[in-house]
Amino acid sequence: MNPVTLVTGASGGICAALARRLAGDGHRLVLTALESGPLDALAGELAEGGCEVAALAGDVRARELPARLVGLAVERFGRLDNLVNGAGASRPVKFVEMEDDEWDRLVDINLGAVFRFSKAAVRQMQAQDSGGAIVHISSIAHANGGANLAYGSAKGGVATLTYGMAQQLGPSGIRVNAVAPGIIDTPMVRNGFADKYDGLVAGAKLRTPLGRLGRAEDVADVIAFLLSPRAAFVTGALLPITGGIEILSPISAIAREGGPA
Q1: Residue 181 in contact with residue 14, Cβ under 8 Å?
Q2: What is the DSSP letter of 164?
Q3: In the chain, what are the domains?
């Protein structure tokens, strides 16, 4: 039986690529995103390709949305096997210039919603008594704070949540992992660094061993693996998808910047 997978943030760069990859792998999909236009367009595209897909737009901060989407999965497909928590938001801002309301909003989107969707999904998975897989999208910002400390702090919380969930849910056969993308070419990155994007690309070429920005498909492929039976003995992992940017030593970066163009 083809697995049923719920994806949040589905119209964004990474999760749209993931939805296409999972559709190709035979998943039946339940998709959600904030804006109905891009979400419906993606769902229509996938349906035309033969994927069984249901879509419901909503704000992940809405407390009732997780139960509605899990209910949609059960109503449409009879079960829920996987969850990918991909909804996220951020913008570059200095710590001292961030308002309390923005802190609360970003922490709720990037961490609170992960908790709520996971809880709703796990209750259904445990009722089915057939295991399942959950993947959270964290970020390299979990280790360095990033350009927005609310976002980075929330992504650090996602890492901690991953470890704790994996311990508690393993006996139910539910695997819980996370991915930590680096600098990925997505609309959020392009919009957040619009006036510095060319510099971002040039810097990534110098400071990343693989010499480029990441692509949404790079992340989608790893998530698809973590959801698959090929990752049957992988849980509690936080996998960096960074092109190796975090392992390039400062002296190596300086040497590369000082070398020939």
Answers
A1: yes
A2: H
A3: 4-185+217-240 (3.40.50.720)
What whole-number distance in Å separates Cα of residue 73 and Cα of residue 67?
Answer: 10
Contact 140, 182 (CB under 8 A): yes
List the chain pLDDT tens, one digit each, 261 residues: 899 999 999 998 999 999 999 999 999 999 999 999 999 999 999 999 999 999 999 999 999 999 999 999 999 999 999 999 999 998 889 999 999 999 999 999 999 999 999 999 999 999 999 999 999 999 987 877 787 899 999 999 999 999 999 999 999 999 999 999 988 887 666 665 666 667 766 777 777 888 888 899 999 999 999 999 999 999 999 999 988 887 766 655 555 565 544
Residue-level length of the chain: 261
Task: Find out whether 192 and 90 touch, Cβ atoms under 8 Å.
Answer: yes
| Rounded Cα distance, 86 and 117, in Å | 11
Residue 151 annotated in active site: yes
Strand-pair category, 4-7 with 174-181? unpaired
Q: Where are the beta strands (DSSP E) in the chain?
A: 4-7, 28-31, 53-55, 82-85, 132-137, 174-181, 238-241
Residue labelled with tokens 């928590």: 85
Alpha carbon distance 44, 255 (integer Å): 49
Catalytic choice (81, 113, 151, 207): 151
142, 155 contact by CB (below 8 A): yes
Sheet with 82-85, side-by-side order of all strands: 53-55, 28-31, 4-7, 82-85, 132-137, 174-181, 238-241
Integer Cα distance of 147 and 94 in angstroms = 8
Q: Name residue, tokens 């998808």.
A: 241
